[in-house]
Design brief:
217 residues; 5 strands; alpha+beta; single chain
């Protein structure tokens, strides 16, 4: 005797629904993973740019930190008094200023004039200028140190900090973009909060535009 009840057959779209659910779960898991670990990886980057954004906007809070020093010195006159300016010992001069007088930063300029040479160095929160008498080989060196806050501010702007630091800023920006997008992706997987979250995001964007329109001349 056979039962009149036959086993239910799966509908044609059941596999599709199952695959869709799996995709949603994997997408939600990946977005959470990216958002969590990239957020922690870039935590100090976000903190650094947040703090230095404040110090940049209120540089007057840190006035009076700069220190200027002036010194004199000599170098072999033969390095600078050659009639052919192409034979001036630029490398030796720069290395002497670094090793003996503690000059820092990257050389930003080396100018040769009829009676003198001038060498400039730039670094975050730092500058140095040496003016060399070509006839006598004597020079005057002026160093300006603007303080640790100025160093941080220049690092924020990538000013006089070298190509390596510039690359780091670019990489940090990419990290922050991915963190932002992964957070947005997480929102799309939260069915009960998706619409409300998008509305809040749009309102935040409108507020930012209104503040720009009202506050910026």
């Amino acid at each position: 005797m056979t039962s009149s009840k036959e086993p239910l057959k799966p509908t044609a779209d059941a596999p599709g629904k199952s695959a869709k659910q799996v995709w949603k779960k994997r997408g939600a898991a990946w977005s959470r993973w990216l958002h969590l670990y990239l957020s922690m990886l870039s935590f100090f980057v976000v903190l650094f740019f947040s703090v230095t954004g404040l110090t940049l906007n209120h540089a007057e809070w840190f006035d009076g930190q700069q220190a200027e020093s002036k010194r004199t010195g000599t170098l072999p006159a033969i390095w600078v008094n050659a009639p052919d300016t192409a034979r001036i010992r630029k490398l030796e001069i720069v290395e002497l200023l670094r090793s003996k007088y503690g000059v820092k930063g990257a050389m930003s300029d080396f100018l040769v004039e009829d009676d003198q040479c001038s060498v400039s160095f730039k670094g975050p929160g730092y500058s140095a200028d040496a003016f060399i008498d070509r006839a006598a080989g004597t020079f005057k060196l002026t160093e300006l140190r603007l303080g640790w806050v100025a160093v941080l501010n220049d690092l924020h702007k990538g000013r006089d900090s070298g190509p390596g630091w510039s690359w780091l800023i670019d990489i940090s920006a990419v990290f922050l973009v991915v963190v932002s997008l992964s957070g947005l992706a997480m929102l799309f997987f939260l069915k009960n909060k998706r619409v409300r979250g998008m509305i809040v995001g749009i309102v935040g964007g409108v507020i930012c535009y209104l503040l720009y329109w009202l506050l910026v001349p």
